[in-house]
Specification:
It is an enzyme of class 2 (transferase). By secondary structure, the chain is an all-alpha fold. The protein has helices spanning 39-59, 65-77, 82-91, 99-123, 134-138, 140-158, 163-185, 193-219, 224-251, 254-257, 263-266, 272-282, 288-298, 304-315, 318-336, 345-361; strands spanning 127-128, 131-132. It is 69% helix and 1% strand. α3 packs antiparallel against α4 (99-123) and α3 crosses α8.
Length: 362
């Protein structure tokens, strides 16, 4: 097989090779994707998440009847609130009770929700967070305009956090737009599709995770090196998360993972295993079976029988193992970025989250 791009090897920090500690009976944060095993920390974060939820509800409320219903739609539907939780967690590196930390958590979730309004229009997604997507209820134009309105409200709120936060938010918003643009248009002629895909993941997904982590640490007064460390962690863990998701789309058992296998394949959404297979075929060293598999994946997968057969063949192909390796490497490199953080429950939670992503891909 052809080689795949990997993040540079580092030797600093704790690698994500040790098994995560078993979660204890804690408040809601453990259900949101971060393995927070310190009871006092979990309790504080649960309380602050309640404050964030209240502030979110207030932030999306509008005196305009049409705007009010559409803007509250996804916030009312719930969601894991992972990004605000990450902001609150990294805020514990300094003064977690600083008012700017909660405000930043609201900003990153508003930004995330606004981006979902746009994404669902572009992807024609029928559902979001267990509810009909906004464009399915109010139409594409309303969904786009309400997404813009939520971005505006996030911008107004971040303006109260100082110029450094404003610059970070604006650059993150730009990267998210670029990621969506490049995903929509695809790689240029002659551009490596694998490298293009990794850049899309970094811009569209990882940039907001990085900003979420960075804002919490920055506004809590944490040292600059710790702010930089959690920002770098967010960049790499965001890529690892999507690569692990690509593995699950092929290899998961829907009953245990909660993800229906083959969803992205059926919709012909580019994922790393298919991109690696395509690059292998283009290299000229592929077998007839490789070429036949790619032709099947590019064809009509609406039949359950055809999809199941394609999944079985892809599971047995080396490109899936290559994708697993890539996801694990990004997760371990994310954990290594945490070396400047002091030992304690914040660092432990972030390291264990990276390890959970590595485990998810294997």
């Amino acid at each position: 097989m052809t080689s795949v791009p990997l993040p540079p090897q580092t030797t600093t920090g704790t690698s994500a090779s040790a098994p995560p500690a078993a979660p204890t009976d804690l408040p809601d944060p453990t259900a949101l994707g971060l393995p927070i095993t310190d009871p006092e920390l979990a309790s504080r974060l649960a309380d602050r998440l309640t404050v964030v939820d209240d502030a979110l509800s207030e932030a999306v409320t509008s005196a305009d009847k049409l705007a009010d219903g559409a803007s509250r739609h996804l916030v009312d539907a719930g969601g894991k609130r992972f990004r605000p939780l990450l902001t609150l967690l990294t805020g514990e590196l300094g003064d977690g009770a600083a008012p700017g930390v909660v405000d930043a958590a609201v900003v990153v979730e508003l930004t995330q929700v606004a981006s979902l309004y746009h994404d669902d229009v572009m992807d024609s997604a029928p559902m979001r967070r267990g509810a009909p997507a906004v464009h399915m209820v109010w139409g594409n134009s309303v969904a786009i305009l309400v997404g813009d309105m939520l971005f505006a409200r996030a911008s107004a709120r971040v303006a109260e956090l100082g110029p450094e936060a404003v610059i970070l938010q604006s650059r993150t918003f730009e990267r998210m737009c670029l990621g969506q643009l490049h995903e929509t248009m695809g790689p240029d002629d002659g551009e490596d599709a694998v490298a293009h895909y990794l850049q899309v993941l970094s811009d569209k997904t990882a940039s907001l995770l990085s900003a979420s982590a960075r804002l919490g640490a920055m506004l809590s007064g944490a040292p600059k090196e710790q702010v930089e460390a959690v920002g770098a962690f967010g960049e790499k863990v965001g890529v690892a998360f999507q690569l692990a998701d690509d593995v699950l789309d092929v290899a998961s058992e829907g009953e245990t993972s909660g993800k229906t296998p083959g969803t992205d394949l059926r919709e012909h959404v580019p994922t790393m295993p298919v991109l690696l297979l395509r690059r292998h075929v283009a290299s000229g060293s592929a077998t007839d079976d490789d070429r036949d598999l790619l032709e099947t994946l590019d064809g009509d997968l609406s039949s359950d029988e055809v999809l199941t057969a394609a999944l079985e063949r892809l599971r047995a192909h080396p490109v899936l193992a290559d994708t697993r390796e890539l996801a694990v490497r990004w997760a371990r490199e994310a954990a290594a970025e945490l070396a400047p953080l002091p030992d304690g429950p914040v660092k432990d939670s972030l390291e264990q989250f990276a390890q959970a992503l590595a485990d998810r891909a294997v």
